């Protein structure tokens, strides 16, 4: 009886030792896998790229899924020489993307872009910025609108001034009578000037 028990115990010991050897060999393999890349982060990324575990193109597929491919499109454009006009156009583009992705620019953001457009001066951007601002539910002070309309008239951009006045009225912003008088008189003067030019030539 004791001999049978000893025999059973020895059989169990050999089977467990075989199993433990297999486990040890697996653990050694796992240890080899754990240390296959360097501890330095930059070297690790190089190793990941080399082994095709991580590739930059994979990042673009994630970006495609989230709709962030516009960054690639911007990078493909040739560099432009910096100008205030280009800065305003880029700021408008970024603001549109923020809105597109679900963000809400503050009134301060809109005001900064509008100020940059006034400094440039870029009358073609005034209306777009104001319409975006009004669509977000923001309104500026009447002195700023007056400044923009006066600038448009000084630059000879009568259509832009009229469009801004129309947008103000559509948005429920009261247009001062003096501003309306200036726009109307500029329009009447503008209608008379081409007729005079045509008769002189």
Summarize the topology:
Elements: H1 2-34, H2 41-50, H3 56-66, H4 70-76, H5 84-100, H6 107-119, H7 123-135, H8 142-154, H9 158-170, H10 177-200
InterPro entries: TPR-like_helical_dom_sf
Region (Disordered): 1-31
Protein name: Pentatricopeptide repeat-containing protein
Q: Report Rg.
A: 35 Å
Q: In total, how many beta strands?
A: 0
Summarize model confidence as the mean pLDDT. 78
Number of helices: 10
Helix-strand category: mainly alpha
Largest sheet: none
- Which segments are poorly predicted (pLDDT under 50) over 5 or more consecutive residues? 195-201
* Helicity range: over 70%
Strand content: under 5%
Using the alpha-carbon principal axes, give the shape.
elongated
In sequence order, what are the helices and strands, one letter per element? Answer: HHHHHHHHHH
Termini separation comes to: 132 Å
């Amino acid at each position: 009886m004791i001999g049978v028990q000893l025999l059973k115990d020895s059989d169990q010991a050999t089977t467990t030792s075989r199993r433990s050897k297999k486990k040890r060999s697996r653990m050694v393999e796992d240890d080899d896998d754990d240390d296959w890349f360097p501890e330095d982060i930059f070297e690790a990324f190089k190793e990941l790229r080399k082994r095709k575990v991580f590739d930059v193109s994979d990042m673009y597929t994630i970006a495609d899924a989230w709709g962030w491919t516009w960054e690639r499109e911007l990078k493909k454009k040739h560099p432009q020489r910096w100008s205030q006009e280009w800065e305003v156009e880029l700021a408008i583009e970024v603001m549109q993307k923020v809105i597109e992705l679900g963000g809400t620019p503050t009134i301060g953001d809109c005001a900064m872009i509008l100020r940059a457009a006034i400094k440039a001066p870029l009358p073609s951007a005034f209306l777009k910025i104001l319409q975006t601002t009004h669509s977000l539910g923001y309104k500026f002070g009447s002195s700023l609108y007056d400044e923009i309309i006066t600038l448009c008239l000084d630059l000879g951009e009568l259509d832009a001034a009229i469009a801004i006045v129309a947008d103000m009225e559509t948005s429920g912003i009261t247009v001062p009578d003096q501003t309306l008088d200036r726009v109307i008189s500029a329009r009447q003067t503008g209608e008379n000037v081409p007729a005079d030019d045509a008769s002189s030539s």
